[in-house]
Amino acid sequence: MGTGALRKVDARSTKTISIAKDFSERPAGRYLTDGKFSGQAFREKLLLPNLIDGQTLVVELDGVRGYPSSFLEEAFGGLVRKHNLSAADLLERLTLSAVTPAYRRYIDIIWGYVRTADKHRRD
Amino acid sequence: MKKLTKRCRRRVLIRQRQARRALARRRRRAVAVREHLKTFRSTVVRETPMTPIRLPTGAWASHIVIDPPEDFSLTTNRPAVDEFLACFRAEALGLGGILNRRAKRRLHVDFRKIQRLAPAAALVLAAEMDRWRRTTGVRLAVIDEGAWDPRVRQMLHDLGFFDLVDPINPSSLPAADTPIRMIRLKTGKRIPTEFTDELEEALVAIAGPLEERQYYYEAVSEALANVSHHAYPDVRPRDCTQWLPHRWWASGSFDTERRRLKILFLDQGIGIPASLPTNTAYETILGYLSNLGLANSDAEMIQAALEVGRSARPEQGGGHGLPQMQAYVNACNDGSLRIVSGRGEIIARKGQPIERLSHDSKIDGTLLEWELER
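YS: structure for the whole thing
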């Protein structure tokens, strides 16, 4: 899990978004009240609308200043906690991509948040 | 005698009850005033023999002076600094503030007493001045800057301290040679997008390029997020000083002799130990303390919050902020993260066990200090 750049996807129904280019180079904060580029804003404006049935989503992680844990957890863990998506659903439809080695560590971190949120959702 | 109607009797009873309550309030107030005077006026505060000063308006004001400790450092002289800060808050914001305003007494701090000033303590001091200024609209009157220790004065000047106070007789004094360079105080609320870049630019100006910029960005962003989410609950506890909701202060210093960069971050909220009971990871934290046979002191609670966030799986997704702040130190060559909150303090040095310290007095809010070797 987590090596999204190597997975094969159906190109006809795949959308790719880049956090740095399509959202912000400085993501920070958890909730909308924290600022314009919070995890909740990213999840509600970019992640959810693109995770529609039949479409897979590739999220490119490169190019940002960094990823505060509160941003990542709210953006991706929030898909499970707030919108009741399962980790299995996300694994099938969501791919995380990082070309630069410095950003690859976030792939496992994000899937860790998703797995944790899914475990507590099922408990 | 006219017989009172039922309605009149009721009014009389109500007025008697109001009078009894007002008397009880005056008595409680008198007891509080006596306690306040007994606690503070006999120690750090003195009735000044100084000549009453003439204000710019032409009026004359009497004054009350608080003496800070000579060694103004939270590391080497914590009890005295805490006592000074508590006294200042009581005289500026609390009951003392009301007494002083009624008696038209002006509050001073005799900064000539300070011979050594640590950067973290300077930030805490500046934040107190800022809180008083924003809360009451009054600035601390400052006199005799020329008689202050030159290095202390230079540090406070670099910090922007003199923008927060009211120099009575301002004069331009030559810059003093001090090995510690400080950056200008930054303050704000919530998570401003450009703050991390502005802080980095100021740090680079005194210490050169930062290493591990990604980790730096994440650590500072998490510090801001923690203040936004945990430091200031909606209802201020009664034992907390009047605060400025969601406000934080930040600065930095570089010791050119020891080659040490410090990044400082402060809030005046309830502190980490007091915020943990409402945290969804609280049960996990208590379990961690119990497993290790540790007590629930503030220092141990802070350490547990750090360790639980790193290793355990919090239920609702939070708790990773403190470990990410520590990760910045671990990514750099050498350094430490110091967290001072409540009566507890921990120092997490790279590659070493966490050191815990407990103090008798409380600090308002939480102070974070990253110290990095350059």
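YS: worth flagging: Helices of chain A lie at 19-22, 39-50, 69-81, 87-93, 101-122.
IM: good catch. Also Confidence is low (pLDDT under 50) at residues 1-8 of chain A.
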